[in-house]
Amino acid sequence: MKAIKIILSISLAVLVLTGCSIQKRCQAPELNLPDEIIAGENDTLTLADMAWWELYSDSTLTKLINKTLNNNRNMRAAEAHIRQMQELYRVNKASLWPSISAQAFADRETNAYYGEKVSIEPELSLKASLSWEIDLWGSLRWGKKKGAAEYLSSVEAARAMQMTLIAETATAYFELVALDQELEIVLQTVKTREESVNQARLRFEGGLTSETAYQQAQVELANASALIPNLEQKIALKENQIAVLSGEYPSKIERGNFDMNISLPEDMPIGLPSTLLQRRPDVRQAEQQLKSAMASVGIAYADRFPRLTINLVGGFENDELRGYFESPFSYVAGNLVAPIFSFGKKKAQYKAAMAAYDEKRYAYEQKVLEVFREVNDAVITYQKKRRTSELQLNLFEAAQKYVDLAQLQYLNGVIRYIDVLDAHRNFFDAQIGLSNAIRDEYLAMVNLYKVLGGGWSTQAE
Prior knowledge:
By secondary structure, this protein is an alpha+beta fold. The protein has helices spanning about 1-25, 50-55, 60-70, 75-95, 140-205, 210-225, 225-245, 275-280, 280-300, 345-410, 415-450, and strands spanning about 100-110, 120-135, 305-320, 330-335.
C-alpha cells in the first residue's frame, strides 16, 4: 500500500511538470485584438444579444425557423455527432481508472497415456482481476483533455450550424416574399399596360393617333408579360430551397406579405472585440480544435517514455467443490514497457503533433481575422443598403408624380404618347428598385445578426 502511494505521488509530480512543459512548447495564438471592432464605435451591447425569435417578429418566419431547426438533416447529424463525441469522452475518462473483470472457469481433463493409468484432472476457478495503467507521463490525462476538447468542439459546431441555418432560412424567406412582391408589381403593370393598349387601339382606330403609338403600347405590354415566367420560376425554386432546408420534400411554402414599410435603425450595436469572440461559436470551435491539437502534442510527448501497468488477480481455485472457498490464490504483477529504439518513429510523431498544433494555431488566428472582416463588411453593407433604400424611396415617389403629370399632359395634347410610355417605364423600374432595395436591407440585417454571433440561443417554443 505504501508503494502504491509513492507511485501515485511520483505520477502526480511528473504529470504537473509534463503539463507545464507542453504548454510552454505550444506557442499561444497571437491575436493583438483592436480596442474597437469598428473605429469610433465602442458599444457594450450587441445586436446578437437579441434572441432570434425577437429579431424576426414575423410569426410565419418564426414557425419556419423552428421547423428548420427541428427537421433539418444536417442539424440532426450535428446533434448525433455531439452524442458520439460525448460517449467517446466518457471512454477517455474511463481510461484513467482501473479495469476490473471477473472470470468463472471449469474444466475436466482426462489423460490416457500409453502404459499409464487413466487420470482425470478437474479444475474449478473463480477469479477477479484488476489492471491499471499508471499515468506516469500524463498520456491518459492528455487523452481526457483531447476528448473534452473534441466534445466541446462538436457542441460549438452544432451551434454554428444552427446560427447558419437560421440566417439561411431568414434570407430565403425574405427573398421569397420579395419575389412575390416583384411578381405582384409586374402583374399590376401588365394590367395597366393592357388598359393602355386598349386605349391606344381606340385612339388609333378613331384617327386620333398614328399606328406607331399603338405598336409602342403593345411592345411595352409584351416586355412586362415576358417577365412573369422567369419570376414564377424563381419563386418555385426558392420554395423548393426552403422546403429542403426545413427537412421536407419540395412543396409550397406558407408566407406572409412583404413589408414595404420597413423601419430599421440607422445604426446597430455591435459590441466589443472580446464579446464578439465569445459569441461566435465557430471561433470557439476553432479554439477547442486548438486545445485538442495541444492535447495530441501531450499524448505524443508522453508516448516516448515508459508505460507502467499494475495487474492484480485474486480468487479461488481447486480441483473439487469441497473446500473450494478455502483455496484462495492471488498475485500481483507490474509491467513496465519502454521504447528503446524505433528508428525515430516516436520523435517524428511528436514533431508531427507539434506541426499539427501550429496549423490549428494559425487557423485560429486566421478565423479571428476573418470574423473581424465579416463584421466590418456587414456593418458597411447594412449602412449602405439602408441609404440605398432611402434613395430608392425618393426615386419611387418622384417617378409616381412623373407618371401622373405625364398622363395628364398627354390627355391635354402637351406631350407625345412616347413620353407617357417613358414615364410608366421609369415608374415600373422605380417600383422594382424600391422592392429590391428593401429586400437587400432585410438581408443586410440578417447577415449582420449572423456575423455578430446571433442565432444560437435556445429555440423558441
